[in-house]
Records
---
Amino acid sequence: MPDQTTDTDHQPTFEQSIEQLEAIVEQIESGEVGLEQAIERYEAGQKLIQRCRGILDKAEQRIAELTEDAQGNLQAPATGDGMADEDA
Amino acid sequence: MPRLFDESEPPRPPEKPPSQPDKALSVAQLIGAIKGAINDRLPGKVRVVGEVSNLSDRNHWFFSLKDGEAVIRCVMFASAARAVRLQVRDGLEVVATGRVDVFPGQGAVQLYVDRLEPVGQGDLELRLREMIEQLRGLGYFDPAKKKPLPAVPTRVAVVTSRSAAALQDVINTAQRRWPGCELLHLDVRVQGESAAAEIAHALDKLSDQGDRLGIDAIILTRGGGSIEDLWAFNERVVIDAVYACRVPIVAAVGHETDTTVTELVADHRCATPTQAAMTLVPDRALLAQQIDQAADRLRLALRRRAEYERQRLAGLSRHPAMSRPDRLTELPRSSVEQLMRRLSRALPGRVDRDRPRLERLADDLPNLLRRRVMLARLQAEQLEKQLQAVGPQRVLDRGYTLTLDGSGKPIRSARSAAQAGTLTTVFSDGRVDSRVDPDTGSGSSPQPPPASRPKRKRKPRADEGPGLFT
């Protein structure tokens, strides 16, 4: 039940994606991985870039009201599904 | 905050009294002159400490402020009086803030009071300074304690009043910059008695459950107001909640000129709600640029890497080992040639050294051969004699005969002879052919051989020495 609104845990955030990209670029440039691996890394990097663009392209501003339920848990009624669905 | 009226400079009478004393003024003119003098000589706002007396607090408030030496009439209109939070009664020492003016109807100089504060705890500014010093000692403002703000938050909680213009400012700004950033509004009162407790509670909840809700940051805000309006943000319970909150907080309380302790303790302080939203919500265009740059770098990195590998490959293929594999044998070949040269140089020396032995061998060779041939001949003669001694001719000479079949093979039994049909008997002096009688099985009268038989007669058998008994 407490997981219903956590969708940010599974996928790297925008920042984490950018950091991973930096690391990938570093690996490819430094030659610390073989050429085949470098190509694999490149493809992984392309996926990260796509994911970042997907995050950016969410055009709809979402404003939800946080309310506290009887157990003292904060609830955000309209959230938790939209972001997960939009993940490209 | 308006300063206390500076008493070291008491209002002096106008330097020039109304021009001619003999010229009579109307009362109104006099009052007007007094008003003018007060306006000229006194600041717009004064703060006066005194004891309340003769309080009449129906609707508008009327009272006197007095100390040991003097008294002044005070008026507080209903709008201002409603904001007074202390229990005002006669004898209470207060700090009154307001402007001095003349009430023409009574010819009285009065203090028109905007604000009443209790003395002692009335000086908010002083209290504020004391608190800030105390918190500084506790490390509440330590830059090292400030949490970094997320560069790209995906969920931001906005803690403010639903009706506040500040909320709309935050929403509009976020919308303009990056609609993808989700805002979660948490409604709290931002002024009045319960405000501090509500704000503190909201922050505690967010600190506990921010992770679960995926909240990256908090905007704590309200618009401008008087220092009393903003006072909740100077309450210790709020300050402690801000300090303890595990989610980074951007605070923007009041106008830029107002500073609350909450803002000092927060991880980031902004002048206005709009600025707070700008600080937290990244500009979509900038993010897009960042991604484009990352994509470029990635492409470039792989291309550079591929180019590097290509050059490495080219370098390797230019290497003699790859481009002229025949040269691979050069070293061994040259060493072979060297060996051969050494050999050819060494050989003559060796021959020279061995030449005498060679010549001696060459001299000896003919003699050696001759001896060998002689020896072989002697051996051969010896063998011939031995052969003759046991040879068939000798046996025949002694009177024995040898019987051969048609094909010249010796016959060693009567049964073989019966099957042979034709027999040749060898004597020491010649041969006799005979025919076996098939009826008796034993040899009797010779019969004429078949036409082919004579052809098979072998005359010269006698001189065939060797092989007779084989």
---
Amino acid sequence: MRRLAPLARSLEARTVAVLLLAILVVHGGALLLYRQSAAAAADDAFARQVANQLILAREAVLRRPPSERDTEAKALSSPHFELGWSPTSPMHQDEAADPGLWSLRTRMLSLEPSLGPGLALAMGIGDEAVHQEDLAGAIPLADGSFLTFRSAHAPGIARLGPWAYLSTAMAILVGVAAVVLMHGIAGPLRNLTRATGRIGHGVVVPVPEAGPDETREIARALNAMQHRIHGLVTERTQALAAVSHDLRTPISRLRLRLDGVADPAERQAMGSDLDDMQAMIDSTLAYLRGDDDPEPRQVVNVASILMSIADASSDAGRDVDYAGPGRALATVRQVALRRALDNVVDNAVRYGTRARISLAVEAEALLLTVEDDGPGIASEEVARAFEPFTRLEASRNRNTGGTGLGLTIARRIVEAEGGTIAMANRPEGGLQVRVSLPRAGR
Amino acid sequence: MLPQIETAPPAGDAAHILLVEDDDGLRMLVTRLLRESGYRVTGCRNGAEFWRLLPAGGVDLVLLDVMLPGASGLDLLRALRARSTVPVIMVSARNEEADRVLGLELGADDYVAKPFGRPELLARVRAVLRRSAIAPSPLAAPKAECLSFSGWRLDLRSRSLHDPEGAGVDLSGAEYDLLLVFLEHPGRVLGREMILELSRGRLGSATDRSVDTLVSRLRRKLEPPEGLPPVVKTVRGAGYMLASKVERT
């Protein structure tokens, strides 16, 4: 039942259910109507047959003298239609008034009025069970005697012919065909749903404009909407990027004017503020650049990048070291990967006092680890740490600067290179970021 | 850093720098800065002014902004290289690797990204002027684009290093400059002072100790793949030596 629940919610399943129900009702109704009309036709034929035989038998019997009449009637009998002659009425009054047979009697009288109003009919005369369904009856003759009959076939029983089975088979076939066709019609809708699921991850996903008019219209509208949104986002992005680029010129001016500041301490403080502004602009631009990075991929010694990062950080007076092999190859965009790893290490020293970078060469991948001794982050915030503009102030509450884009950019770059990035708190305190990159030539 | 500025060349044979920068404030500041350092500076705003000023002659260096109104700095550079070998330093607000490589490929001698500080700009200007003074590159002989040594390959345009198996190796700016010093003097023992002298302006405020650190860092990056001899050898008591042949391609 649990597996049927989603089926019951599906538009396709519901449509198919309605369709099958309709076929079932129509088919059942048709069978019922046929049965009714077949029964009426059988009744009619039976009435005609009985009336005819009675007329013929009456004439034959009346031609004989009374002593031979019974014998003559018997001779006219067939296995299914027994005739007899009786000088007195063989039927009781109450039997002749069987209301179920009125319509048969009326029909017989309307076919052969000469049978006369004395016609009496009854069901199941006799004690034997075999004869319960038989029709018995009598008509008065001109001399006051009676001609009796008994028909083995009761009226009103119409059998379902083989065509009924054929029509049932046909209904089933039509049902199956309808289900298959419905599935086909629902196909474009399913494709539409699948394509829609891919929308919104940065690139314009062409939604297939196929299928019935309605789905085609939806797809067309979706495509148009995507282009509008993409255009809007691109426009905003370009504006933001242009501003970021333009900011570099005034920062340059400020940097050059810095030489006019007499107080060395003040000069240094202003210089570091300008450094912060520059770093924010750089990371904003890196974030805005998105996925269209034109840098080609090449086999790169990742260890050399880690060495450079550790060296540059040490030169800037931060406690960062690299321990690992001198050579470890991966096929990546070198400048982009450098930026990603820079951001990870920067994040580590920003919140901790030192960072340890290590590299392990595994069978399929290079495993890069950056560990800090900072406060770590709450485990429920780990997933949020990679979201853009996120600052996990709760646990890492310090005036640390940064744009909140570093780890977002790092994750996007690492994932673009076919790698993964994850973070976890170390049991001994601090945060550990693990970056896995596929090895070159694997 | 300020004392270095005092040692600028005297005004008599001062190098003439043509500055192309559309931002008035920045042009004024850079002009002042370079004049304080003893250079003759002419500023202009765009390509049209640039072409008017250039034939006046005596230009030793062009500082060219990439983002100019009208024809971009890269267009100017392309046109300039068709007729002249005057040293050019590109100045750009777009600190993108692709832009840097494109500028260098079009024939720029160096590339400075905005925002830059006074020491960085002066170091670059000095280094480029010095290089052009030592080896004025005639039009006929194209500059080397690649230096090969012991299977390693240093691309001078993109400033990228590849190991004998073709894998890219990350080099810092200082490591690149140091490697270039070694590659320009293969087979010669270079002492620390010598290295500082040869790379003057490029290794910035390097000291003897930092030269040792830098050499050891460079050697770690130049670690040969398997069983090959080291590229940079230590000569006890004397300094360092690049122990391989250098081919220019």
